[in-house]
Write a structure and sequence with these properties.
Layout lengths: L2 H4 E7 L6 H27 L4 H24 L7 H28 L5 H27 L1 H10 L2 E8 L2 E7 L1
Antiparallel strand pairs: 1-2, 2-3
Helix pairs in contact: 2-3, 3-4, 4-5
């Protein structure tokens, strides 16, 4: 057997960085799913705790969960570190301030807006804040981790033909 028959092919498999549209779709799904779960948890906890305490607990837990999901699945950056959690938490706080300002602004302009106007304002502000959070998380929080995860998780797979069978040997 010569070296050509022994080493049939060599591949380098690196985790792929998802495109912007795929990342955004996952961001919406995981963020929305976390929001729905947080809503259910708030209802469950508000029967046992004051609404302010229940909301604080749910907001912190939901933000931690969403950050971890966004890091692992939306941005494929692996597990979120403490710095990423603080940055994502800060962006959630800014989004909260933005939506609150939108609602206060609405009530300053219109004393008694209809529920549809309130919901439209809140959803529009939430959409803008969510888009801004996505851009911030993708470009600032998880952008550096992609390269680190990519280089740390790079695996070289080599197919070796031994006695007529293919075997895959992985080396870091």
């Amino acid at each position: 057997m010569n070296n050509r028959s022994r080493v049939a092919e060599q591949d380098t498999n690196q985790p792929s960085t998802p495109g912007t549209v795929a990342s955004f779709a996952r961001f919406v799904v995981f963020g929305g799913g976390t929001g729905l779960a947080s809503s259910a948890a708030l209802v469950a906890l508000s029967g046992h705790l004051s609404i302010a305490v229940a909301n604080a607990i749910v907001t912190v837990a939901g933000t931690i969960l969403a950050t971890e999901l966004h890091s692992r699945f939306a941005f494929r950056a692996g597990r979120a570190n403490l710095k990423a959690h603080f940055q994502a938490g800060g962006s959630a706080a800014v989004a909260y301030l933005f939506t609150t300002a939108a609602m206060l602004g609405l009530h300053a302009v219109q004393a008694a807006p209809s529920i549809m106007v309130e919901q439209g304002t809140y959803l529009a502000a939430s959409g803008v804040a969510g888009l801004a959070r996505f851009v911030f998380l993708r470009l600032a929080v998880f952008a550096g981790s992609k390269a680190a995860v990519g280089s740390a998780a790079t695996v070289t797979a080599t197919r070796v033909r031994v006695l007529g069978r293919d075997a895959v040997v992985a080396a870091a």
